[in-house]
Amino acid sequence: MTHTRFAFVKAGWHAEIVDQALIGFCEVIPEAQVDVFDVPGAFEMPLVARDLAATGRFGAVACAAFVVDGGIYRHDFVAQAVVDGLMRAGLDTGVPVLSVSLTPHHYQETAHHDAIYQAHFVEKGREAAQAALGVTTMRAAIAAE
Predict the structure, then answer these.
(1) Which CATH number fits domain 6-144: 2.40.160.180, 3.20.20.70, 3.40.50.300, 3.40.50.960?
(2) Ramachandran angles phi, psi of 99, nearest 5°
């Protein structure tokens, strides 16, 4: 069965950047087919993604976050935990869980950097939507054989 609904989970931190991924996603998959879920930060995404995938209502779940070095914690540990959790959510449920979770090496909260990452997130959102459509189509074809 090919699903026509997709879930999009987005972290609230750096929303002005992260929200751009949803814009790109909806350039490929119509907004009417996308249910959007907001979570506080990246670390909360795997649990919510797993819960959404487990409902069976979605062909795929895409998750977007921007994890930066805040100087207090090791952002690379957070980013690794998030990506590992998203992968596990997909494997545990059998529903593709896609990551638009990026961790830049160098980020400064300036208009220049914000513009660069906003444009990048639009493109990554498009790529996630294309991946969601591609993998759901391929899995439906495999199931039909």
Answers:
(1) 3.40.50.960
(2) -110, 125
